[in-house]
């Protein structure tokens, strides 16, 4: 049988050229049109958002025209331009630090807007709002319990607990810091009365963050203030949190129990006997046993 001439062999399939990325193609076309010096090249859009500088409280300066600025502050905070909202939140911080008398008449509205901004999914807005809340706590403290402001403060407190419970670390840390400043700037008893609700929140992370603030409040209280809140209720709070799933809540429960022990037995010579009698008379046996294990003689 005659062999087929080599010229009649099937042609090989040529390799298909690889596709170039669209960005690379666009860049090449720009360079082709631009000439040697590239004067006509249009820069490609940046993939990131505009950057926001987080200014520490120490670096904030007084406003040059606070009387004029206060007139549009609430409106500016409600702007559709998020960078303008960030700037306005920093203005809130300046008002709180240097012009608090001008801010106080509209503080309820400001606190509402700050709490609303914390719900924004943009992390830069959220963190700046938390920083504003911290400066508001430092400036106004217990004035946030005033009837005209109290409801707005409740909403702000919940948002801080939620943000302290989330996964974005830099937001979470800022919220933790703000909660610490809140406890440090306010009388413990009225704040504890608000925190008590969140100590039994269905979200275990919120419950744990509330427990930490609650324990900080108790650590600032003497026996008289604890009695005003209710010794039985307070030891029940500690017993409940001691069985919580999160170690942060359990540590807070131990702190509450220790603070109560120190306040109750301060002037007693038989400290453990008094503490044991109190726990066993106020708690079910299994809870009393758990609490008594915390304080060692």
TrEMBL record:
GO MF annotations, alphabetized: microtubule binding
Region forming the signal peptide: none
Gene Ontology CC annotation, any one: cytoplasmic microtubule
InterPro entries registered for this protein in UniProt: ARM-like (IPR011989), ARM-type_fold (IPR016024), CLASP_N_dom (IPR024395), TOG (IPR034085)
Domain spans labelled TOG: 59-289
Residue span of region Disordered: 1-42
Family annotation (Pfam families): CLASP_N (PF12348)
GO biological process: microtubule cytoskeleton organization
Top-level division of the source organism's lineage: Eukaryota
Protein name as annotated: TOG domain-containing protein
Organism name: Glycine max (Soybean)
